[in-house]
Amino acid sequence: MRNIKLTGREASIVRAIGFAEAMMGAELQDNTRMQPEDLTDTINSLISAGFVESVPYFDQVEMAEMPVTAFEVNPAYVHELKDALLRR
Fold first, then answer.
1. Would you list the DSSP string of the chain?
2. Cis peptide bond prior to 36, omega within 30° of 0
3. Distance (Å, rounded) from C-alpha 27 to C-alpha 74?
4. Domain map (residue ranges) of the chain
5. In this predicted model, what pLDDT tens digit does every residue of 7-17 receive, in sequence order?
6. Contact, 84 vs 4, CB < 8 A?
7. How far is CA 47 from the centre of its chain?
8. Per-residue model confidence as pLDDT tens digits over 5-62
């Protein structure tokens, strides 16, 4: 088990996505109130770390695709991400 440390932006995105269902990028932007560029960059860093997955699958999400793409937490990291959010 690895000790995951999330930045504030990463933590707010993981909290907004939640652990039950996928969330569309437009909803994610509304819930986090982040600028589209910042949101896209942070989502891409979470995707590259393997903590978040996109539906349909992308290695990196472009800003134009982000609102119509669904995002979900990678089930393999659910327990570690919950612990990371509790430690914040």
1. -------HHHHHHHHHH-SSS-EEHHHHHHHHT--HHHHHHHHHHHHHHTSEEEES--SS--TTTGGG-EEEE-GGGHHHHHHHHHH-
2. no
3. 19
4. 8-87
5. 999 999 999 99
6. yes
7. 7
8. 999 999 999 999 999 999 999 999 999 999 999 999 999 999 999 999 999 999 999 9
| Partners of residue 84 on adjacent β-strands | none
Contact status, residue 49 vs residue 8, Cβ threshold 8 Å:
no
What amino acid is encoded at 77 in this protein? Y
pLDDT band at residue 88 under the 50/70/90 scheme? confident
Smallest Cα–Cα separation from 69: which of 88, 46, 45, 53?
Answer: 53
Q: Which CATH number fits domain 8-87: 2.30.42.10, 3.40.50.720, 3.40.50.360, 1.10.10.10?
A: 1.10.10.10
What is the total residue count of the chain? 88
